[in-house]
Amino acid sequence: FGFRILRRIIQDLHGDWWISDQGSAASNDWRIEEFNIQDLRWRKLNMETIIEEQKFQTVDLSRIQKIGFTDSMIGGDSQACSRLDWIEVYAGSAKKG
After folding, report:
1. Structural domain boundaries in the chain
2. What pLDDT is attached to residue 78?
């Protein structure tokens, strides 16, 4: 089944996707986690192959248009999946353009 780690992904206003260095590993029970997006490091993510680049890069966090999650693995049955119940995002609005 593999070792699934649910990582944060963001899309900037240029359309580039980024994946975080930190993630949430498997748990026997539901849990609540908080994180500060400023504390994460980012790698560019190819959304066609779902493969990240090796080099960490700086992302302008004031220019984010989408936030999501991925475990970077193909889905499967109940033991080979990642589950997310809800997310809350606290942020200001970014101006497009």
Report:
1. 1-97
2. 67
